[in-house]
Write a structure and sequence with these properties.
Layout (H helix, E strand, L loop, with lengths): L2 E6 L5 H13 L3 E6 L4 H7 L5 E4 L6 H6 L5 E4 L9 H6 L3 E4 L5 H16 L15 E5 L3 H12 L3 E5 L5 H5 L4 E2 L3 H7 L2 E4 L13 H4 L7 E4 L8 H10 L4 E4 L6 H8 L3 E3 L9 H21 L9
Parallel strand pairs: 1-2, 1-3, 3-4, 4-5, 6-7, 6-9, 7-8, 9-10, 10-11, 11-12
Helix pairs in contact: 1-12, 5-6
The protein binds 3-phosphoglyceric acid (3PG).
């Protein structure tokens, strides 16, 4: 019987697991759950007899892929697939897919939520400031960036976007101002919301050269990936710009240094939780299960990312 393993060190909401189970069992497949595991060896052991795997940010490296003797497909229930070793998968003939757009609303709501939390002094009772009329720069106008723009416009923010892969008209039709260079985006906006993936072009690309262009007060919001930030430069920005704040859903490795010196200007969620809503888990989890069934039964490779 076809075995579908759900390997999630950060478990899906129960309603999502129920939905995944329904899709998998209706297809006549078997569902195996490995939730909240803390040891990578458990993942390696569990994948041994799986035909298909659903993961979130779970590290799916060569060791995992090679351990899956029957493995045919890995679906990342989410957008970013930087946690999966695509070359190892391709070398073994394993198809890798993501589920684009399925958890975008949850991530976008968190980005705006963190902005409100910061401008209202972490709800500590002291007088704060407002988002209305402030300039927000969306760095990458994909599924999440687009929703951030819509919500921010609802707050009355002036929204700008830079994305070399999206046509100017697609940005402008949303009432968002199109920006032609990343430098211009940072020079113009008090708030920057990051929505770039982590890849060879973007790793450490958010550096002092870019950040120091931001007008005062400057607020950087990261619901994307820790790796896209140059962390030494992030610290330098805190040291040189007393107005600078960093709000993040992905913990920087130099968190201790930042917290020690700049606590009032820094917030990070205790665990990556942008996509941690029941709705996002249901959408992404069930989409992943359906994609697996469709691939195993019909050979459908829509959403394959390792072509
Ligand atoms: C994504 O790439 O979809 C988000 O970063 C969500 O990641 P998560 O499923 O690990 O919460």
């Amino acid at each position: 019987m076809t075995k579908v393993l759900v390997a999630t060190d950060k478990a899906f909401a129960p309603a999502a697991v129920k939905g995944i189970r329904q899709v998998v069992e209706q297809a006549g497949f078997e569902l195996v759950l490995l939730e909240n595991y803390t040891n990578q060896d458990d993942f390696i052991k569990a994948v041994a007899d799986a035909d298909a795997v659903i993961v979130r940010s779970d590290k799916t490296d060569k060791a995992v892929i090679d351990a899956g003797f029957n493995l045919k497909i890995v679906v990342r229930a989410g957008a970013g697939y930087d946690n999966i070793d695509l070359s190892a998968a391709t070398a073994k003939g394993v198809v890798v897919m993501n589920t684009p757009g399925q958890n975008s609303n949850a991530v976008a709501e968190l980005a705006l939520g963190m902005m409100v939390y910061y401008v209202r002094n972490f709800f500590n009772g002291k007088s704060g400031w407002e988002l209305k009329d402030k300039k927000l720069g969306i760095h990458a106008y994909g599924a999440v960036g687009k929703i951030v723009a819509r919500i921010a416009r609802g707050f009355g923010m002036e929204v700008y976007a830079f994305d070399p892969f999206i046509p100017r008209e697609a940005i402008e039709k949303d009432g968002v101002k199109w920006i032609s260079s990343v430098e211009e985006l940072y020079s113009k906006c008090n708030f920057i919301s990051l929505h770039i993936p982590a890849n060879s072009q973007t790793r450490q690309s958010v550096n002092f050269g870019l950040l120091s262009r931001m007008p005062m007060p400057a607020v950087l919001v990261n619901t994307a990936r820790a790796e896209v930030i140059n962390e030494a430069d992030l610290l330098k920005m805190f040291q040189e710009r007393k107005d600078f704040a960093y709000l993040s859903d992905v913990e920087p490795t130099n968190k201790a240094e930042i917290e020690a010196g700049f606590k009032a200007k820094y917030f990070c969620t205790p665990k990556k939780m942008g996509a941690q809503t029941e709705e996002a888990n249901i959408n992404a989890g069930i989409a992943a299960a359906r994609q697996i069934v469709n691939f195993i039964n019909n050979g459908d490779k829509t959403f394959q990312v390792n072509k």
